[in-house]
Amino acid sequence: DADVTQTPRNRITKTGKRIMLECSQTKGHDRMYWYRQDPGLGLRLIYYSFDVKDINKGEISDGYSVSRQAQAKFSLSLESAIPNQTALYFCATSDLRTDTQYFGPGTRLTVL
Amino acid sequence: GDSVTQMEGPVTLSEEAFLTINCTYTATGYPSLFWYVQYPGEGLQLLLKATKADDKGSNKGFEATYRKETTSFHLEKGSVQVSDSAVYFCALRPAGGYQKVTFGTGTKLQVIP
After folding, report:
1. Are A101 and B98 inside 8 Å of each other by CB?
2. Which pLDDT tens digit goes with each residue over B74-86?
3. B25-30: long-range contacts (C-beta < 8 A, 24 or more apart)?
4. Size of interface A-B (CB pairs under 8 A)
C-alpha cells in the first residue's frame, strides 16, 4: 500500500465551486505539505504543517485553506475555485532524520 | 531569497548516452541539496542528496557533487536507459534548522532506444 495517498486522483469542477482534496499518510511523520505543480513553474508550496496544532502559509496560499484533522490527515480546500487553480496538486510528508520528502501520487484538478 | 535554477528541457538522448542536467542555486551558507525524480503519473521521489560542500550524492547510477565555489549541483549519469525517462527536479533546503524546501522548475528527460 502507498505510504502517502491522495483523493480524488482527478477532479473536474466549475468556477465558484468549493473543492476539498484529501491526503492521508501511514509514515508516522509530523510534517505535511501541499504543493501545486504547473508546467514551467515547478513545485510551489501552498501550506505546510509541522504538527496537528501548527499550520503555516506557503508562497501561494491565497485562495486556499487547509485542515490538519490528525497526524495522518491533511486536507486542502478551495473555497471558490477559479480556472487559474487548474493544476496538479501534491501532498507530501517529511522525515527529519533522513531529510527526505515523500510525495503522494497527485490530484489533477481542472476548473472550468 | 533562496532559488534554484535548472537547465530547461526537454532533453532527448539516445540510450547509453551520457547525461548532464545543470543546476545552480542561490542561498546563504551551506544549504542541503537534492535531486528528486518524477516518473510519469507519479509523485516525486528522492534520487540523491548532499549536505555539505564537496559531498557527492549517488543512487541508481546517478551522481551529483556539491560545489560551493560554483554554487552548483549538476546531475550526471554515464549511460542512460529508457527507464530513466522522467522529470528531474533540483532542490535546496536552507542551512540552520528546518526551513522549507525550494524546488527548481524541473527538467524533462526523454531517452529513446
Report:
1. no
2. 999 999 999 999 9
3. B25/B71, B25/B72, B25/B73, B25/B90, B25/B92, B26/B2, B26/B71, B27/B2, B27/B3, B27/B71, B27/B92, B27/B94, B27/B95, B28/B94, B28/B95, B29/B94, B29/B95, B29/B96, B30/B68, B30/B95
4. 42
